[in-house]
Structure formats: structure tokens, C-alpha cells
């Protein structure tokens, strides 16, 4: 590269780093004009477009760079952009190609790790995250990513060590405080409550206060201080509900649209088992309200010799959204549900399986999709994938409400917006319960409704029932699910690495007074609260 071209590249990169997109774009354009056969100009033009939020424009520019020079940096950034466009298979291929080129710069390594983590391949993300943290040990973001991956893959003490190292440098880091709180069960002798209270007092941003209050609530409940835990939790949830301007009517409209579609539009033409869908029997859907045992059942099933865990896939929601053609930014809304009635079920099945294939790494004949919110799509699944098996976890309604209310999900996700208010969560449960009754009316016996409490009290018997429903032979390894070494990236990570136990049964009773309005409302609705 000539001195002039090197100067243009340096100018573009420096401007990008400073956020001066106009200067960066001008320099990158000049690079392309003066040396169209080289990759750097196209790559930097793509990065400028990406920084401007123009992901669709950025991808072909970075692809042009990769065509000219498939270096690790270009491939890693291409993978990052493809993930944003939900092109998981292409993103995974690009990330793995980048890793195969043995990159040595920390940003590229961390980017590869982030893409693999987004794809659910947390074990594979460990190597690039570790390398990035070793190259740039003072970069706290890299170390955080390594800590999170360590926790997801069961390396609990390594995760703890990395999180503590971050807090030594940045004692106010709220996401680290929360990650440490949920990493394992705290005790009266070993907890972080005093440190968390100090961090809360100095928290300046609402998101930081939210995470620290959740961490405090979790640790206080662990050590038996239920009233103090509820105080922090209610303060955090009330503030966040106000911040996101949530109204239960938003979710009610989605439930209404689903019920309307499958009772009036499809039931009138005799809802069937989806004989015109894709007949592939590979998928096993594990659905239900969050925090009801879906991760536990996923671990049981994926301990079977013929089953692999594909993770919490967005494959069905994205297949329905894409094929419905609705212009809204939301993956699910009333308009998308209504439009999906006109889609050929086989198209949905084909699109789902194509997306899911990118998350199947072990070549086993069956796989689990553990997205709890797929209960909203069971009508689509029943028609589009007539040979798929479906398991819905059912848990005591009061424990379900409490567990949803006390867990911090993805704070900006519309899926969980209901969970910041006890009565909103109760209303959501009631609509979930009603929807499950609809699926049973339309397709009796197609969905196994499995009791979490029943699983705890009769583990082997219910496991046999589960395997039989899923068309699987008996495998004693399913009883040793806690030895399954696969990564877990849900709040249940610590629990599912322990043998089956009933510790979580009846937890709501510690907060019975605060939950009394929920219990009374459930009684009026005909839902047995105990």
C-alpha cells in the first residue's frame, strides 16, 4: 500500500473512532476511488454505514471487502452485521472463518466471541473471549464477556474471579454486581449485600439502579430477608414499568389476535393437525411462562443420546414475521398475527427449520427449541410442523407470578414487559392459561402439559412420561441432567447444575401478604392459586 493510501486509511479509521462519520466516509470513498481492487476502502465505507445505523447498506460493502481480502477483521465485522440482520447461518460461517485465520487483535477476537455467544455457542466463544482478555487485560468489556461466557459454561469460579477483577477497577459496575448475585446462591456467611447497598447509593443511571436493586433483592431473599428483598424489588419494578410506559393492553391485543385467528378464521375451516405442513419430526418445543422449569426440562431432554439443545431460538417468531410481510418493527403484534393466517403452513415449517438448522451443531436426530414464548405460536407450530413434539411447563400460578416478578429478564424486550408489575403478571398468566386451553380444544393431546411440582415429586415417573410423549426411548442419562456440561444462559443456570430438588416450590409464601391481591384475583378468575 502506498503512503497516500495508508494515510487515507489512517484518516478514515481515526475519524470513525472519533465519531466523525462525514470525514470517515470521505476518506473511505477516496480509498475506493484510488484503489478499487483493495479491500480497505469498502470495509471502512461499510463501517461508516453501520455506525450510521444503515446495516442493510453496510453488509454489501463489507462483503465487497471480504471478496477482495478475507481477513479476520473484515469477516468478524461482517458476522456482527449479519447477526443484526438475523442471518444467523451466514453470521456463524463468517465468524468461524475469521477465527480460523488466527486473529491477534483483541477487538476482532471479542467480536467473534460475541457473535458465537449470540448464536448460543457459548463453549466456542470461550477461546476468542479468553484471547481478547489476555491481549487487552485492562479492557473491562472484554473481561466481562469472558466472565459471562465462563458462567454460562459452568466455570463458576473463573467467572467470579473475572467479575471481581472488574469491580476492583470499576466498583459501580451494575451489570457485574447483578451477574455476581445470580451466579450462585448466596449465604448469610458469604454475600455481597453491604457492597450492593453502597453501590446503590452511588448509582446515577436508572438502568444501574434497576440492576443493583435486582441483585440486592436476589441476595436478600437468598439469606432469608424476604421483606427487605421485596422492598427493593417493588421499587425497581415500579420505576422500570414507568420508564418503558408499559400497558397490559399491549399484550392483551396480541392474545386477542391469536384467539381470533385460531377460533374464527381457522376453526371455521376445521383446524387440523397441519397435514399440509413440513413433516420433519426433529423439533421438540419446550414452552411455557418463563421461570416455570423450561430450562430444567430442556436439560433433561438434551441429556438423551438422540437429542441436542439448540437454545432459545427466535426461529419460529422470525419465520412468521418474515412470511407475514408486515412492516412493523415488532416481531409479534396483532397485525402480524392476523396476516399470518394467509401463510401456507408448509412455508412456515420450511422457514423455521432453515433457521433452526444454523443452531444444530451435533448432528443428532432430534433437537429442543426452548423459547418459552413459543406458546404464543403453538397454533402455527401445530399446523406447520405436524410431527413436532410440544411440552408446556405448568407451575403453581402464585410461584409463576412471583418468579416472573423477581427475575430481571432482558430489560428492553417486549416479551417480558408485563413482569414489572404483580397484577400485570397475573393478568398475563391468566391469558396464557386461557390460550393453552384453546390449543387443547383444537388439538387434544398434542401438547404435553407437564407440572413442575409433579416433576419434582415424581422425577423418574414424569421423565418417562416426558420421553414417551416426545417419541424417545428411555435413557437413564436423563435422570442425571445436572451433569450435562452444555452451556446454560438463563437465570436457571445455577439450579440446573444441581440434582432435582423442591427448593423453589412454594417460594411465593414468603411474600404472601404482598401477593394477596394476586391470590384473590386468581380466585375470582377461577384459577386455583395454591
Output the keywords:
single chain; 530 residues; mainly alpha; Rossmann fold; five-stranded parallel sheet; 25 helices; 5% strand; globular
Commentary on this structure:
It comes from Novosphingobium silvae. This protein has 530 residues and is mainly α. The chain has a domain at 249-493: P-loop containing nucleotide triphosphate hydrolases (Rossmann fold, 3-Layer(aba) Sandwich). Helices cover 59% and strands 5% of the residues. The chain contains 25 helices and five strands. It has helices at 3-18, 21-34, 40-51, 55-68, 72-84, 88-100, 106-118, 122-135, 140-152, 156-169, 174-183, 193-202, 206-222, 226-244, 249-265, 294-302, 315-324, 334-339, 345-357, 378-384, 397-406, 422-442, 452-457, 459-469, 516-525, and strands at 283-288, 307-309, 366-369, 389-394, 447-451. The longest helix is centred in the last third of the chain and has 21 residues, at 422-442.
Structural class: mainly alpha
Mean pLDDT: 93
Listing every helix as H and every strand as E from the N terminus to the C terminus, the arrangement reads HHHHHHHHHHHHHHHEHEHHHEHEHHEHHH
In what range is the share of β-strand residues?
Answer: under 5%
The residue fraction in helices comes out at 55-70%
**Could you tell me the radius of gyration in angstroms?**
24 Å
Keywords: Transferase
Pfam family, one: Sulfotransfer_3
Organism: Novosphingobium silvae
InterPro entries: P-loop_NTPase (IPR027417), TPR-like_helical_dom_sf (IPR011990), TPR_rpt (IPR019734), TPST-like (IPR026634)
List the topology elements.
Blueprint: H1 3-18, H2 21-34, H3 40-51, H4 55-68, H5 72-84, H6 88-100, H7 106-118, H8 122-135, H9 140-152, H10 156-169, H11 174-183, H12 193-202, H13 206-222, H14 226-244, H15 249-265, E1 283-288, H16 294-302, E2 307-309, H17 315-324, H18 334-339, H19 345-357, E3 366-369, H20 378-384, E4 389-394, H21 397-406, H22 422-442, E5 447-451, H23 452-457, H24 459-469, H25 516-525
Parallel strand pairs: 1-3, 1-4, 2-3, 4-5
Amino acid at each position: 500500500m502506498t503512503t497516500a493510501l495508508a494515510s487515507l486509511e489512517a484518516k478514515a479509521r481515526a475519524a470513525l473512532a472519533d465519531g466523525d462519520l462525514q470525514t470517515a466516509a470521505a476518506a473511505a470513498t477516496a480509498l475506493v476511488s484510488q484503489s478499487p481492487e483493495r479491500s480497505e476502502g469498502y470495509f471502512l465505507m461499510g463501517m461508516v454505514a453501520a455506525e450510521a445505523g444503515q446495516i442493510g447498506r453496510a453488509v454489501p460493502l463489507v462483503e465487497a471487502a471480504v471478496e477482495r481480502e478475507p481477513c479476520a477483521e473484515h469477516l468478524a465485522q461482517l458476522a456482527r452485521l449479519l447477526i443484526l440482520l438475523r442471518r444467523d447461518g451466514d453470521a456463524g460461517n463468517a465468524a468461524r472463518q475469521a477465527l480460523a485465520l488466527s486473529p491477534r487483535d483483541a477487538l476482532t477476537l471479542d467480536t467473534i466471541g460475541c457473535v458465537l455467544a449470540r448464536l448460543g455457542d457459548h463453549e466456542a466463544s470461550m477461546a476468542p473471549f479468553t484471547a481478547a482478555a489476555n491481549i487487552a487485560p485492562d479492557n473491562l468489556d472484554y473481561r466481562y464477556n469472558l466472565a459471562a461466557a465462563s458462567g454460562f459454561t459452568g466455570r463458576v469460579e473463573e467467572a467470579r474471579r473475572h467479575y471481581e477483577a472488574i469491580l476492583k477497577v470499576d466498583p459501580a459496575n451494575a451489570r457485574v454486581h447483578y451477574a455476581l448475585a445470580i451466579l450462585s446462591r448466596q449465604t448469610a456467611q458469604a454475600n455481597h449485600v453491604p457492597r450492593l447497598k453502597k453501590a446503590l447509593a452511588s448509582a446515577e443511571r436508572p438502568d444501574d439502579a434497576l440492576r443493583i436493586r435486582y441483585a440486592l433483592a436476589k441476595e436478600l431473599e437468598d439469606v432469608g430477608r424476604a421483606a427487605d428483598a421485596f422492598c427493593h424489588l417493588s421499587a425497581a419494578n415500579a420505576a422500570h414499568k414507568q420508564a418503558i410506559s408499559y400497558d397490559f393492553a399491549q399484550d392483551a391485543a396480541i392474545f386477542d389476535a391469536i384467539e381470533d385467528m385460531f377460533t374464527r378464521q381457522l376453526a371455521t375451516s376445521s383446524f387440523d393437525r397441519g397435514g399440509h405442513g413440513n413433516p420433519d419430526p426433529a423439533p421438540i418445543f419446550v414452552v411455557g411462562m418463563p421461570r416455570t422449569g423450561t430450562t430444567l426440562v430442556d436439560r433433561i431432554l438434551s441429556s438423551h443420546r438422540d437429542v441436542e439443545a439448540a437454545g432459545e431460538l427466535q426461529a419460529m417468531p422470525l419465520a412468521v414475521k418474515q412470511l407475514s410481510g408486515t412492516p412493523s418493527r415488532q416481531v409479534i403484534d396483532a397485525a402480524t398475527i392476523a396476516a399470518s393466517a394467509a401463510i401456507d403452513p408448509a412455508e412456515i415449517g420450511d422457514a423455521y427449520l432453515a433457521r433452526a438448522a444454523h443452531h444444530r451443531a451435533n448432528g443428532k436426530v432430534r433437537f429442543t427449541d426452548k423459547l418459552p414464548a413459543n406458546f404464543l405460536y403453538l397454533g402455527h407450530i401445530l399446523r406447520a410442523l405436524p410431527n413436532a413434539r410440544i411440552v408446556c411447563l405448568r407451575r403453581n400460578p402464585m410461584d409463576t407470578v412471583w418468579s416472573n416478578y423477581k427475575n430481571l429478564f432482558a430489560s428492553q424486550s417486549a416479551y417480558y414487559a408485563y413482569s414489572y408489575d404483580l397484577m400485570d403478571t397475573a393478568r398475563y398468566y391468566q391469558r396464557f392459561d386461557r390460550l393453552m386451553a384453546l390449543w387443547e380444544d383444537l388439538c387434544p393431546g398434542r401438547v404435553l402439559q407437564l407440572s413442575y411440582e409433579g416433576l419434582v415429586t415424581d422425577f423418574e415417573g414424569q421423565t418417562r412420561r416426558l420421553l414417551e410423549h416426545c417419541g424417545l426411548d428411555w435413557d437413564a442419562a436423563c435422570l442425571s441432567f445436572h451433569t450435562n456440561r452444555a452451556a446454560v444462559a438463563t437465570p436457571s443456570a445455577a439450579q440446573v447444575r444441581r440434582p432435582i430438588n423442591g427448593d423453589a416450590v412454594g417460594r411465593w409464601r414468603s411474600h404472601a401478604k404482598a401477593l394477596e391481591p394476586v391470590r384473590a384475583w386468581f380466585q375470582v378468575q377461577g384459577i386455583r392459586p395454591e
